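Chain A, query sequence.
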Amino acid sequence: MARYIGPACKLCRREGEKLFLKGERCYSPKCAMERRAYAPGQHGQVRRFRRRETEYAMQLREKQRARRVYGVLERQFQRYFREAERRPGLPGENLVIILETRLDNVVYRLGLADSRAQARQLVQHGHFDINGKRTDIPSYLVEPGDVLRVHPTSRRRPYFRSLRQSLQDVIPPDWLSFDPEAMEARVLALPSREMLQVPFHEQLIVGYYSR
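Chain A, predicted structure.
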């Protein structure tokens, strides 16, 4: 499955804010936004002083920010939006719910990975079971009643053994329950928009695709 393999810090600099794409590094002085808080490229510093965005530019930036936060490429993001339009309810809220219920995002929300990129890699390496079946598809969409477990053989690996202590302090989202000792989570319900705090405005994304 295709994924972005370029420098992650440039994405944060282009959006002008931290997207927390590199886990612990984003909280340290090594973060690129702490050292160079302007857009990448030859004219990055010039653009920040004469930025005058049109409505289209604002919509585009919100769409790009959402894609980059969740690590989704353009074609897949378009498919998610079309699916959000088909579902009952508001397309923007449906889009956020679809993105949040991706398996790699759930792993990240549970504190089993420092970033969504790391969560994606863990899923691809087959470290998680869904309803007792090993699943290695990061884009798998969880549903209410699904049970996610760290695979039995993976629990013995140094990475997951070292996680046990830190997982005690993790507070899962309201729509998930998590047992850190058993390394098992259950999807209680689909998240509502009120439960989710995301760094973009989904209505601008709806406007972008409704042009």
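The chain has eleven helices and five strands. The chain has a mean pLDDT of 83.
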